[in-house]
Design a protein that fits this description.
Order of helices and strands: EEEHEEHHEHEHEEHHEE
Helix content: 25-40%
Largest sheet: 9 strands, antiparallel
Shape: globular
Amino acid sequence: MKKENNRIPQSETLDIREIGTPIDGEPQYSDRRLYIQLHVFDKDIDTINENLNNSSLNSVLYDDLNNPTGIGILLIAESPSDLITESANLIHLSDKLSYRSEMTMLGRTYSSGREPDLEEWLINKPMSNALNPDFTWAIWYPLRRKPEFYLLDPRERGRILGEHAMLGRSYATGGYAKDIRLACFGLDTHDNEFVIGLVGSELYPLSRLIQDMRKTEQTTKYIDSLGPFFIGKVRKRFTKSP
């Protein structure tokens, strides 16, 4: 009697590297990306500057606009393990800092396949936007799209996202705001899909950009949830040598 073969057929090997626009006909690939995490606390302590200064990670310390005694701490790393280590050091101070876990945001840089310089997009640009000394304000928030967005034809999704992107580029070109776009599929405890950071020298343009984004087709028809929003003014940046 012939033995039945219950093995699952082997599919083609997956390639999950980041991909950019081909150069001279050759596609760009990268296994590098940044993981960026925001922690929010209700209280400040005198030693927080020392803790972040002694850390090996690039980071930003924010004053929380909506909480006079609150702070936000943005950690940046290529390895999520480094985030765990540094976050643990912060949580050891949680009895003094009063941790707000519901405000934690975590995401990774990602490519769309159209980036002309992949490393610039995945590493250099988000790092320089977060650490730019001219950008004194930041708004961070998560979002989730409605499931029906992912059922649209790819060209239709591209058209909808293009409208959104053009508005963001107009603010960037005018010097009003820069964005840091992170994917957080499977990384967010509330099942959000993206984390967005808007940074600039003044707060009003960042708020106005979010207002103008509400009129786009993506937001009016396909965004399921936005927020919570963290609004921070940079107190200090901690830039480490490469």
